[in-house]
Amino acid sequence: MDHSIPSSSSSSLQSLRMLALSCRLEKMPQWITCLQGLVRTYLKWSGLRQDPLESLQHLPNLVQVTLIQAYQGEGLCFKAGGFQKLKELYLEELKELRWMRVEDGAMPRLQQLNLQGIPLLEELPLGIQHLRQLQKLDLADMSSQLIDKLESEGGGQDYQQIAHIHQVIISRWTDEGWNERLLSRK
């Protein structure tokens, strides 16, 4: 499948502020790196096998990223210097994701992180303590191993990594709907 855009269209794409793609891609289109005005991006059902962060991390105005069933890889690494203006990150239904890493200097303005339906992620993102501006962490339908570590008596090391976050919400889907609770502060 050809994901190229005619060069005559590329200049008008530079002013594009929102991009929503709900389709199978397998790899990120190369032209995405040219979207310098992009503020929000929403990728769903993409089936990406390559890490989508490589194409998105240096877009200078990106404030919100949503990935829903968009990536089939085992890991995501948010590299130092990447996503400098990002404030909201939503990662949902990434069924193969086993690990996440946040390098110091990545996403320095991130305020909200939502992780939902990532069953193989059994630990908090390595380096989550580097997200000093993070105000809200929402964990919905995550592995019981991850949640148990956060709720263990005394908090443990996992809790210490998120102690700076003002609001940590743990949600599980039950027969009655979403059961949400605020993780108590120690």
UniProtKB/TrEMBL annotation:
Coiled-coil stretches noted in the UniProt entry, renumbered to this chain: none
Domain Disease resistance R13L4/SHOC-2-like LRR: residue ranges: 10-139
Alphabetically ordered keywords of this record: Repeat
Superkingdom, taxonomy of origin: Eukaryota
Classification via Pfam families: LRR_14 (PF23598)
InterPro entries hit by this protein: LRR_dom_sf, LRR_R13L4/SHOC2-like
The protein's name in its UniProt record: Disease resistance R13L4/SHOC-2-like LRR domain-containing protein
